[in-house]
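Page 47, continued from p. 46.
Same chain as before, 430 aa.
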Amino acid sequence: MAAIVFAALILAAFNAGWWWYYRSITAYLEDQLSQRLTGMAAAAALHITPDKVEGLLIDDLDVYAGQLLYLDSLAGIGALSEASIIDLDFNYLVSTRENIPLEGYLLARLNFDSLSAAITGRPAVSRLYDVDGTFLKSAYAPLYNNEGEVAAILVAEAGAGYFDLMANLRHNLFLLAGGSAAVVVVFLILYIVYNRRMAVAEEKLFQAGSQAALGRMVAVVSHEIKNPMMIIRAAGERIEKKYADPEAAFIVEEVSRLDSIVSGYLSFARGDLSLRPEPVDLVTLLPEVIAEFSPQFDEQGIRLDVKIEAGLPTITADRTGLRQVIINLLLNAFQAVAGDDRTLPEKLVMVEAARLSDMVIIRVSDNGPGLKTTPRDKLFEPFFTTKTQGSGLGLYLSKRIVEQHRGQIRVVDGKEGLTTFEVSLPIGDK
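Result:
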């Protein structure tokens, strides 16, 4: 918007400058023509004596012939298109025109104000007018009779060829304005495209920086976690051997899974994830993951509604990564509902899985406070979180895992009152 406003202001200033320049030149040229015609008409009027005016009024042929010669010479010297003398009824007394109109001076109505000024004894000039594509201007000077009264008017009319050039200049200015507007539009389009590409590049640079920071952080955390995990695992193995305790075997299994997850996070952060694709049956995997969290949901009084379509096809995926995505979404839904202070008839988390065309769709929904004030485009950015104790990595890493599977994760409009995260995974053996 700033670029558009700036370009519009530049375009307006550019065209306003040209228009002002055009108007200034036109006004200057018209003023010079007005001064020349007025001075010429006033000077010529001084050479027409009252006796000659009286002679023209009574149709004295000798006076008429003499004044016609005088007007012809005046028109030749002053480059006039017409030199005439008219009476106060605007009828021609003598004129250099080849065809004198019987109805009298044709411009009387158009230039009535200027003629009225001449009748009162003041030389005057008309406005510029266009006659059949020719720009003309007329000057009027009073002629007096023997009683000292204005009895006739001297008309000096001249054309100005340079006004034709000004008309062409005006046309060219309109073309220039249109051309400059087109240039500005092209510039704006190029600028916006460039600006968007720069924004994308900056975002990628930011993500690369965030990923580098994430890599360093995960490297430190994983290093600090691995040693205690190895101790826990070794202790679990000794207990399992000594007492044949199945719970000890569970500890060993979960520590191994935790080690795999930490290693996977480290690989993601470094950008060198190596997927281990295998056939994954969601009809089996989803209930397994959900069963691990059922006690937590029951403890908080949260109803866990599971709807898995029968006969879902097997997909090819990294089982550990996909399992972690589902766990992240379940934990987010659980924390959203458990931390909701509103009085609700029922706290609900829904897990749905169904086939849609050549995709398997997994939806995790909850009736928590929702994302009304949270920008959805930031949910999957690293370190962005709405939780007071969240790391901001769960959804980011989930998105990377899903995208590595050629899938998509997003927030969709779920049922009324529900916040829904949807994972789409392709069906196939690749």
